[in-house]
């Protein structure tokens, strides 16, 4: 009888710890600069669906007019479980000044958006809290197209803390001084949230990876599975100079993450040259006579066709585990 009571006690103890244990949820993150091609909304929605992504960071989203039409088309195609948060309501549309500092406009093609699967996540936009909607706020960026969205896993209590902070970035491409200023501001944002929960920054940095690894970030991702060469490093953009092949020339797209973001899968390009191969990259066009890019259900045999139809950027993915 005593032994039976011990067994019952052990079962209750086990059930207590089992019910209070934290279970890791794997989230797949995808990032892509659309290149202000609103007409590719359906194409990108199909690619998102095929990739299995849970959170999608988009840059250069065209929003004029009507506002957010491309995003509405994407969500409509993805289904009722999908929603988005966009910077279109607060992105700068004219030159702004604060003291002696000048902040440049982004225009209608320079907006960011984060899409997410509501079946897995709930989202809170931190634009107001950080001053993105009020230009006198603490965190000011050129074009003001940096987003901070905090996510909770579906089913968690409203009083619970956030599980993941997602920061969507598009730094200026043609002004080094302002790009460095924005990078310093981004470091401040990173420091603000990196101890609270898993934190991932993704997007188009217009910077080589070596510049980012020299700053105050814990991890800047890029792996040996990526195409690379001595001149350009880890490349994510398609060159316009060669009309026959997709030559990757810049490593402008990255994932930055903190120590609380447990990496489940290394960073890689979203699709590969062969369905049977691992989704780890594309042909090196300088070593092969032909080049094939598979983007969702679509196949491009020339890099220039992909660039003109979709974007000059290649979609990249990273999977993290959050508790």
Secondary structure blueprint with pairings:
Elements: H1 2-20, E1 25-33, H2 41-51, E2 55-61, H3 69-78, E3 82-86, E4 96-98, E5 101-103, E6 111-117, E7 121-125, H4 127-130, E8 147-153, E9 164-170, H5 176-193, E10 198-204, H6 209-213, E11 219-220, E12 228-229, E13 233-234, E14 253-257, E15 262-269, E16 293-295, E17 298-300, H7 303-309, E18 316-322
Parallel strand pairs: 1-2, 9-10
Antiparallel strand pairs: 1-18, 2-6, 3-6, 4-5, 7-8, 8-9, 10-14, 11-14, 12-13, 15-18, 16-17
Helix pairs in contact: 2-3
The gyration radius over C-alpha positions equals 21 Å
Number of helices: 7
Task: Work out the helicity level.
Answer: 10-25%
Averaged pLDDT: 81
What is the oligomer described by this structure? single chain
Order of helices and strands: HEHEHEEEEEHEEHEHEEEEEEEHE
Largest sheet, spatial ordering of strands: 3-6-2-1-18-15
Number of strands: 18
The termini sit apart by 40 Å
Largest sheet: 6 strands, mixed
């Amino acid at each position: 009888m005593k032994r039976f009571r011990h067994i019952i006690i052990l079962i209750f103890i086990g059930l207590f710890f089992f019910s209070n244990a934290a279970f890791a949820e794997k989230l797949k993150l995808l990032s892509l600069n659309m290149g202000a091609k609103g007409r590719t909304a359906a194409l990108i929605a199909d690619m998102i669906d095929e990739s299995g992504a849970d959170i999608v960071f988009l840059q250069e989203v065209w929003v004029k007019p009507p506002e957010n039409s491309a995003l509405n088309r994407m969500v409509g195609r993805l289904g009722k479980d999908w929603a988005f948060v966009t910077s279109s309501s607060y992105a700068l549309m004219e030159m702004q000044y604060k003291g002696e500092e000048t902040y440049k406009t982004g225009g209608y093609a320079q907006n960011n958006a984060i899409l997410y699967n509501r079946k897995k996540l709930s989202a809170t936009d931190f634009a107001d809290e950080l001053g993105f909607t009020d230009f006198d706020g603490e965190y000011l960026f050129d074009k003001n197209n940096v987003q901070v969205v905090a996510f909770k896993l579906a089913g968690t209590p409203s009083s619970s803390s956030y599980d993941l902070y997602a920061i969507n970035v598009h730094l200026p491409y043609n002004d080094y001084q302002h790009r460095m200023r924005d990078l310093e501001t981004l470091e401040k944002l990173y420091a603000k949230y990196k101890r609270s929960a898993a934190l991932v920054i993704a997007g188009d940095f217009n910077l080589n990876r070596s510049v980012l690894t020299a700053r105050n970030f814990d991890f800047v991702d890029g792996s040996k599975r990526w195409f690379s060469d001595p001149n350009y490093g880890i490349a994510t953009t398609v060159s316009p100079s060669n009309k026959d092949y997709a030559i990757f020339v810049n490593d402008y797209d990255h994932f930055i993450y903190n120590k609380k973001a447990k990496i489940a899968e290394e960073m890689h390009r979203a699709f590969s040259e062969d369905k049977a191969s691992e989704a780890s990259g594309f042909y090196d066009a300088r070593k092969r006579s032909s080049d094939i890019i598979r983007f969702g259900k679509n196949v491009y045999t020339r890099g220039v066709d992909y660039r003109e139809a979709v974007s000059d950027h290649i979609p990249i993915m990273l999977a993290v585990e959050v508790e």
